[in-house]
Design goal:
single chain; mainly alpha
């Protein structure tokens, strides 16, 4: 029995991906140098942030590998390169975070993207970041036993961590 999901022409699939990636690069102006600058600057700002910085500081001691993974992640998200093979949802589920943290993450991300990127590229990054935050918030809520209705936000019933 022949599978409907087998790629008949793997070389052709690779060429189609390359063309799609190039089309996104041409439309947005995004390249690896821009992704590198965005990730480095964003996480530098995150580390200094009073609300979300401590969440990261409690879990990341060696930032080099994390930043490397985030650059692969954003290459895959922004340009569809497929270079990131991780699973971000399970890493976020146990974190003591809720809508406030996702909102702040997105605020810092959007500010960074607007500061560093041309408007088309910034819009492209920010829209994807918004979708990621929404998806992760939904996942964290569900893992916490809360089913969110459309448009509803997840706020922990116990006090989430906030700075002193």
């Amino acid at each position: 029995m022949e599978s409907r999901f087998r790629i008949e022409d793997p070389a052709g699939a690779g060429a189609r991906r390359e063309a799609a990636v190039q089309r996104l690069r041409d439309e947005t102006g995004i390249d690896e140098a821009m992704i590198d600058a965005l990730v480095e600057t964003f996480y530098a700002r995150v580390r200094d942030d009073l609300l979300i910085g401590p969440i990261f500081a409690d879990r990341i001691t060696d930032w080099g590998p994390h930043l490397g993974q985030m650059k692969l992640f954003w290459s895959s998200v922004a340009l569809s390169t497929g270079v990131y093979q991780g699973r971000p949802m399970p890493k976020h589920l146990p974190l003591p975070i809720d809508a406030r943290h996702f909102d702040r993450w997105l605020e810092v991300f959007a500010e960074t993207a607007r500061d560093l990127c041309p408007p088309v590229a910034a819009d492209h990054f920010i829209e994807r970041a918004r979708r990621i935050a929404e998806s992760l918030e939904l996942g964290v809520a569900t893992a916490s036993g809360v089913m969110l209705a459309k448009g509803e936000r997840f706020v922990r019933t116990t006090q989430a961590w906030t700075p002193d």
